[in-house]
């Protein structure tokens, strides 16, 4: 499985699901629905931002209804996973994909801080070499992964590249 545009040399790729990004934090820390209170709290909070999410965050912030918000500090981390861990641990908030955080959201370790989401400029793809396209093991894992992705995500147009 790879994250990106779906175009990589030497492999076939099938989109499993798209990604939508937003601010996430611990639900216990974000119990208000008042936008002014939320913006005030964000202005006093550390945002853990993946180095790969800078452009997505800028686009999210520019399209935020009511105008951009400014966290107290922005800590750039190596991956969205590190940002998710920091937010779960209560060190601040993070900006990440709803789909990748789905288990943490379902377990109420994380939740969206605001309803605003934007599509990321990438998705998640099953990738394999063309020589294995007819291999039974690849077909089986492909069938299973596509079925699992369809259960939990919005339907995505399937494409093979």
TrEMBL record:
GO molecular function: DNA-binding transcription factor activity; sequence-specific DNA binding
One Pfam assignment: LysR_substrate
InterPro entries xrefs: LysR-type_TF_proteobact-type, LysR_subst-bd
All copies of domain LysR substrate-binding, residue ranges: 2-149
Top-level lineage group: Bacteria
GO biological process: DNA-templated transcription
Family indicated by similarity: Belongs to the LysR transcriptional regulatory family.
Protein name: LysR substrate-binding domain-containing protein
UniProt organism field: Sphingobium quisquiliarum P25
